[in-house]
Write a structure and sequence with these properties.
The chain has two helices and four strands; from the N terminus they run ααββββ. By secondary structure, the chain is α+β, with helices and mostly antiparallel strands. β2 and β3 form a beta hairpin.
């Protein structure tokens, strides 16, 4: 078993259930719904990116999606990114590196 497989297993083993309280006050590193939270602010509480370092941002990874008209907001929880692709495909990815965990 490779280190990538071990990492994926650990990520999924530590995955927490989302409940109503978490939806009201989501962790800063999560994006649980469209526009982030119920107030639809689209604000991220993360503070690693600011006006001094934003120009240094670079694309970390990408993934090809199916052709179609749907554009969805990726949702992120506990290091897993969920993307609803066209043709009724749901992708679960390791959010840091884009590695596919599953496709449904």
């Amino acid at each position: 078993v490779g280190s990538a497989d071990v990492y994926k297993r650990q990520l999924l083993n530590n995955y927490r259930r989302i409940d109503a309280a978490m939806m009201q006050t989501p962790p800063a590193e999560d994006w649980l719904m469209w526009r982030s939270r119920y107030d639809l602010s689209g604000h991220s509480a993360l503070d690693l990116i600011d006006t001094k370092n934003v120009s240094g941002l670079r694309q970390a990874w990408s993934i090809a999606l199916s052709q179609g008209g749907n554009m969805t907001t990726p949702l992120v929880h506990d290091g897993v990114m969920f993307i609803a692709d066209t043709n009724n495909i749901l992708l679960a990815l390791v959010s840091r590196v884009g590695t596919e965990l599953c496709r449904y």
